[in-house]
Amino acid sequence: MISHPVDEFRNVVLVGHGSTGKTSLAELMLYKSGASRRMGSIDQGTSLLDTDQDEKQLRHSVTSHVCHFEHQGARINLIDAPGMPDFVGQVIGAYRAAETVIITINAPHGIEANTRKSFQHAGNQGLARFIVLNKCDSENVDLPVLMNLIRNQFGSACVPVTVPLGTGAGIHGVVNTVHLPESLPEDAALNVSEANRRLIEAAVESDSALMERYFNGEVISGVELDQAIRNAIVNGTLIPVFCTTVKSDIGVNELMDALALYAPSPVQLPRHVLENGHEVSLRPDSHGPLVAQVIKTRIDPFVSKISYLRIYSGTLKKESQVHLVGTDRSVRIHQLVDVQGGQHDGIDEAIAGNVVAVTRVDDLQTGDVISDGSDELTLPPILFPRPMIGLAVEPKSRADQAKISAALHKIEEEDPTFKVHREEQTHEMVIEGMSELHLKMVQNRLQHRDKVEVNTHPPRIPYRETVNGTAEGAYRHKKQSGGSGQFAEVHLRISPCPPGIDPASYFVRENFEGLRSYHYDPSLNFGFIDRVNGGTVPNQFIPAVENGVKDRMFQGIMAGCQVQDLVVELFYGKDHPVDSNEAAFRTAGSQCLKELFHQAQPTLLEPVMQVEITVPTSNIGDITSDLNSRRGHLQGMEDVPGGYTMVRCIVPLAEMLSYARTLPSLSGGQGSFTMEFERYEMVPPSLQQKLMSSYQRTGNGSAN
Fold first, then answer.
1. Which among 412, 428, 438, 674 is positioned nearest to 420, based on CA atoms?
2. What is the pLDDT of residues 374-385, one digit of tens each?
3. Residue ranges for the chain with pLDDT beneath 70
4. Rounded CA separation 243/136 (Å)
5. Residue ranges of the alpha helices (H) in 73-140?
6. What is the Cα–Cα distance from 393 to 414, expressed in whole angstroms?
7. Nearest to 603 by CA among 673, 483, 703
8. Among 51, 175, 268, 329, which residue is least crowded by beta carbons within 10 Å?
9. How far is CA 260 from CA 9, 75, 100, 255, 665, in A?
10. Are 101 and 72 in contact (CB under 8 A)?
11. Handedness of CA 399, 403, 405, 408 (dihedral sign)
């Protein structure tokens, strides 16, 4: 049983760029607190947290790891999150569980791409922020320059709380700038008195009475200062900076002390929830209504499904029945566990403020909210970024074919930034992720955990076909082979259908003379109009003509691509009392469209994407030049914090397939981008000819 009251919990997530030493720091704190009997090492393959086979090969975290330790009366729940942007989904889920974010910086490298992203995201979430400068014992660390850079980038609220004694390999300890020793050390790497002054000013800023006393020359007591620091961290007027050298175990004790003393508890930083649609602050009362959210899902080959929960209110008990908020379903919590890396210890209950896990509850998904029976209180959804990079996959063998769908579904459950879909036009199974490395890890997991092997290739671009002009004509389908035959004659007129129409006001007799009825398919922007007079096409065969037209549209005509943005009018035809049937009219409709399409100025359309690219301002010239080579159209630019610029543009999807590989080289690894479908546009004539030649040569329905 976990005996801590709510105000003794500290929920902390370790974030930052890759290779800053986050996992090593977490392992050292576990060891020093007695939570672990040995010091794990990533390099030696003995890590207590990075136990996944992919993590051992990469020597990087690829998933978040939950652990905990006791220190100075506090229960510190620690989530070690990946530093590589390829696995950002794991970081976003972890933020939802925490009150405090530790942003780790590799001191020799300074502020890197993910440092900025982590800092800004934590601020946007309203979380308390600590900064840890690790590897301070490296020879090329200029701490005064680095601290000035941090203050310039992240603001004057960033103040050192621990300062190294000595420099480089000669560092032998740290000095605390909150409560200064009587005799100031001479070998401190920063001005300790100046750091103390800035820290006190930042601390009292959130308390007007204390600020007045301080600036009137009164001495602030140690107890008052500690309380002021806690409040200032919660309010964001103080972001404490800690200097550490994990390899030599320097500065880590002081960081652990600060987490216990200064990091906010769930009581000090309550969460906002939605109560009957209105945002309210939820006090974490263990006797209140149960509100908990799934922050992470893991499929374990031995334990099956594991759902990690942050409890915001109430008490979750083993063998209890809980309600899935927003649904009419409930689930039973058979097993409740306390998580220590890969180790799970069964517990009977968990109270508000804690982070725990439940096993073998198949209905729980990441982001789900559970309650004790009410829909009155819920939490906002966890918003994950949309995956940008796709690969078409196909199983290597028949045995793989039988297992691939279930295996991919498991990975999709674990990783909200990984998606699987089947492309309707090309009939390909496409997997989407945040990067090529992300998708490579998915393939590794398929192979090692699920024993499924796949072949991959770039997904085909879903080009479309349409017409720019009009055409009118007839087609007679006549087939006689002894006995009853087939006969149908249809007269059609085809024309473009403008995107964004209101069907009810567009398909009217003022626009289409003799209109009797129409059908509109919004997914194709396709209208079929019945203008038949005098029964020249019997009513029972008109749907067959429409179905034949749609058959041909799905098959494609020029390059095997689906047809869209089309109006087809049926205005005349002939039938035979014996040989006419639905099949004959369906064939006639399909063949008539095929012939008329080539007469109506046919053209190919391509998907274009709304793209937002964020890069250091110094790289804008290279970015815009590259976009021009990709047939991009610049829409605007916007300055963002930290010396970055966001570029908005429209770019054809075909030109963006390799962009995830190109952007790092153009931005020094500090760029990021998002894209989403905007619309279809006409393919340039020179490229159209190339695509159609490829189709005619290979018969490939993708026109790639």
1. 412
2. 888 889 889 888
3. 1-2, 41-46, 50-51, 53-58, 303, 388, 424-426, 482-483, 641-642, 695-704
4. 7
5. 88-95, 113-124
6. 19
7. 703
8. 329
9. 9, 8, 11, 9, 42
10. no
11. negative
